[in-house]
Amino acid sequence: MKRRKFLGVLATGGVGMAMASEVRLGAPSLPAGAPMGDGLSWSEIRSLFPLREDRVYLNTGGLGPAPQAVLDALKEQSWKQAWEGEHGHGLMHECREETARFFGVDPEEVCFTRNATESNSIIAAGLKLEAGDEVIFESHAHPGGSFPWMNRQMLDGVRVRIFDPDPESPEGNLERILALVNEKTRVIQVSHLTAPTGLLFDVPAIAREARKRGIWFHVDGAQSAGMIPVDLRALECDSYATSGHKWLNGPQGTGILYIARPVIDRVRCSHIGAYSSDKYELPDTFSYNPTVARHEYGTRDAASVLGLVTALRMQDAIGRDRIASHGRQLAGMARTGLSGVGGLEILTPERADMHASIMTFRVPDLDCQSIASHLTADHGFRCRVVTERNLNAVRTSWHLYNSEDQIGGLVAAVSATVADLRKG
What we know:
By secondary structure, the chain is an alpha/beta fold.
């Protein structure tokens, strides 16, 4: 009965969507807006996702599959737009308001993009930098976070400087960043959580040091939003980028960009379109939309944006602290279990304030691709290889559709895989 009651809530969402209660794949739609802390169990939450039953999914850091509610919202809104012959632009403002509330900021400070890479690129291309100006970021940055700056280096002579993350202490990471800072430093960027090993940076501490020196501070949050609660005011960064399709479990092709209100005008529009302008008159008069929405430079897929907001509602309904605690606990249990496998090394930091729901390991004498392939083909565990910086590792991501009873199976699968590969 609690499940039936729970499933009856979402139909009256804040942006007036119509949702199906049951769909072709058989997973029920999720009600958003009702507290779930004392509601559905994790196994019941898992049933809201049309994930295949013959494997354990541990790659949310790469792609967080959408729950049926998100797929329903996407389908229903797409159908509605096709039926009416309308773009659905009217949804965008309300969706932006709800997204801003989720992240603790004002609607004027956020816009919708296609992914964290596009959001990172808007910042990298939009900041006024000259040849010789320097940008600092960690060597574990995802290509979606590093390539935009490498492009500025290639095109404009901006110099990229990198540091290796310190897995031992937040203070060590701050020291490594500040050791690179000089009079030419214009930007510091970090991944909120690094994609390869799940290292959690002390973002507010870095933000304060950057502000003291007048340095722009940008955060690539592709691995944080949805894994842990994110309050952008508390992070104190100038800008933040994330994707909807990872830990938020939103549709692919969705992303969010935040720019703090006082510095909105410092990011020039690298792409421009009808929604970028606040006032224009051909051929001489042109001004920007005063909000971050100026970077929504053309027609956006309103159905996908509505799907993303549905995913945000799901997070709130389950409880963001509850999700974060669940993932962290599972990752910790996996760490404990895998630590007993002979020759295996854990790369994710051990300190409680430096990790969350990612746990990365390696077996130095074995190829990570071989380990991951065997885990999937022979044991049904979908993980992700980590080849960046020659780490030769395997990453596991623990989220709301994972459970404690999967830990023992993973440990046994890794033990068997290592033994089999060593036999040759």
